[in-house]
Amino acid sequence: MADAMVSSGMQAAGYQYVNIDDCWQVSRDAQGTIVADPVRFPSGIKALADYVHSKGLKLGIYTDAGTGTCGKRPGSLNHEVQDAKTYASWGIDYVKIDWCNAEGLDPEAQYTKFRDALAESGRPIVFSICNWGVKTPWRWGPTTGNLWRTTGDINDTYDRMTLIGFGQNGLEKFAGPGHWNDPDMLEVGNGGMNRDEYRTHMALWALLAAPLLAGNDLRNMSPETRELLMNSEVLAVDQDTKGVQGHRVWEEGPLEIWVKPLADGSHAAGLFNRSESATKMTLDFKSIGGPASAKLRDLLDHKDLGTARNSYSAEVPTHGVVLVKVSN
Q: Is 93 a catalytic residue?
């Protein structure tokens, strides 16, 4: 996957972490140190980290706050400091910590232990809290981790993706540079949704300033998947330095308009059609704090739409989106 990130152009587009999820670990040794699966990782994790770093990329790893992981491997409960030191010694750059087998534990207390252990590990490590929104992690996440999952797991269906994505409204005040709401990984390219649905997925995650974690096989991407995941204008909205998470400004039944203010003073706006037929939608510039006369750019299709006064209307396909940049 690290090789594919480079050869596919993902790295050049800005993606930089290769993250291993559950089931890389098999046991603990006599000293309690976590042991990597010798069959899957015969050279060990440090050698892998060195290889990934040699490509100019970073390596992420996974553990669990409870007694065992979701895949029934050893968890990190009461091994927080030891595991953080081990990961640092291997050259790990990112740790995702899950919440299986954690009955009776308080997430805020447990994740704070990890925060302190990672801070003392001697290596800067991105801390991803994955407790599925249990006990409102957005309230304590900003002082604990760098990103926190706000919901249960996503899957490769339009219904689940939209339930999670549009459900982020109201959480924008908790996000900002260095601490982000995480609506889970991208399903783009996995085959369960159509082109317009994946465009909705990508545009919505970008407006949400969500961490963009590609969940597809990078070794065999279709041109359509590649273009969507590496769309420089959409990625620029997600990665905008102002670091503001977008929010919904208008709703009419299954139609929604979301906006994200950008560092250059412009706004990114998404016109989302969740209905079962193509529908004309109108963006009122005043509703997003835009100028009376605005220059418009279609970010998904890389085309200038000219200048408009007061509003802009577009035909939006069913389950689709029109993503525009509104500038002075």
A: no
